[in-house]
Write a structure and sequence with these properties.
Number of strands: 9
Largest sheet: 6 strands, mixed
Number of helices: 13
CATH class of the largest domain: Alpha Beta
CATH architecture of the largest domain: 3-Layer(aba) Sandwich
CATH topology of the largest domain: Rossmann fold
Distance between the termini: 26 Å
Strand order of the largest sheet: 1-2-6-7-8-9
Shape: globular
Number of domains: 2
């Protein structure tokens, strides 16, 4: 049963979803542990839902309880929003693909996910010598083939000099990104299950290894400009788990294809994953393009997370969301 005080925020999320959610996914919205705090920001302080999501989730990530949020003043709430806008502006001019290594992994087989047209747009926006061809298992792969793709991607993830962009494109769940859903020698074993996925624990471990490898190098400061783009269902839950597990001070700019609890629905396959939202195929797409361009092809919405000063912040949840002064955030 939905709590009445959460209805305003939930209605906004459903309207934004544009009908792209399956039966039962509405209930998943209410499993978002930050929903109560977001609703307090919306109801008690009269903040528009799209801004209440950024403020409330940031306060939740900082460890504030619902009662502590209720005791905040309006000025303290607006100060949190100003801090969010400052971080957004500080990363807005970062190139997404140019001047960096680009590493990608995709679900097998090609077709819907990272097909030739999509990868061509991706390659066109990258430096040719730094674009690494997409890793993916063959159709109906063996366990060994899946393990090879998985280990190759995680090795590239750790070793690519910063800054780098990492893209995972395919099916996903709250705790796993799927490399395939069918193995040619499926036997139901733990090994087979593990070979088919990249888990949140494995991504967390890879982030920590990457941080340890590069933290003392001359490029260590560029780790702040690493980007992860997860184009899969339930990518928001996946990335939140990874980032909240990741204790290091430096974390990547992390972009999820979905809102919490939602699938990643698209109207058509192809290069639109990059061209609609990230201007892929153009010369030098920036993070600002993420904030400014509507993803017309998508039935689901993107979210962006970044840890700053050791604290995770929710920096964007709306397709069209210009940076506004704090006095404009109220309903």
């Amino acid at each position: 049963m939905a709590r009445p005080d959460t209805i305003g925020v939930v209605r906004y999320l459903l309207e934004r979803q544009r009908g792209g959610f399956p039966e039962g996914s509405v209930e998943l919205i209410f499993q978002d542990p930050s929903l109560e705090i977001v609703s307090i920001i919306h109801n008690q302080f009269g903040i528009l839902p799209r801004f209440a999501l950024m403020i409330g989730r940031t306060l939740y990530f900082e460890g504030m309880s619902a009662n502590e949020v209720r005791s905040l003043t309006r000025e303290e709430v607006k100060r949190t929003f100003k801090e969010i806008l400052m971080v957004r502006r500080s990363i807005s001019n970062i190139s997404m693909f140019r001047g960096r290594y680009v590493v990608s992994v995709a679900h097998a087989p090609p077709g819907w996910f990272m097909n030739e047209e999509e990868e061509a747009a991706f390659r066109q926006s990258s430096d040719p010598e730094k674009f690494l061809s997409t890793l993916r298992p063959k159709e109906n792969p063996t366990i060994r083939e899946c393990e090879k793709v998985k280990s190759s991607f995680l090795r590239r993830f750790v070793n690519a000099p910063p800054p780098a962009t990492f893209i995972l494109r395919g099916h996903g769940g709250p705790k796993a990104f799927y490399l395939t859903q069918q193995l040619s020698d499926e036997d139901g074993s733990v090994r087979a299950k593990n070979a088919k996925i990249i888990s949140t624990d494995e991504m967390t471990e890879a982030l920590l290894k990457r941080y340890e490898k590069w933290k003392t190098s001359k490029k260590s400061y560029l780790l702040e400009e690493d980007i992860i783009i997860l184009g899969a269902c339930h990518s928001s839950e996946f990335l939140r788990t990874v980032l909240q597990n990741h204790a290091a001070q430096i974390t990547p700019i992390s972009i999820a294809m979905t809102e919490f609890g939602f699938v990643g629905a698209e109207r058509r396959p192809g290069k639109t994953f990059f061209s609609d939202k990230f201007h892929a195929g153009e010369y030098d797409p920036k993070i600002s393009d993420y904030f400014e361009k509507d993803a017309k092809n998508f039935l689901s919405d993107f979210t962006l997370y970044k840890r700053v000063g050791g604290k995770l912040k929710h920096l964007g949840e709306s397709n069209k969301e210009p940076d506004k002064p704090s006095e404009d955030i109220e309903a």
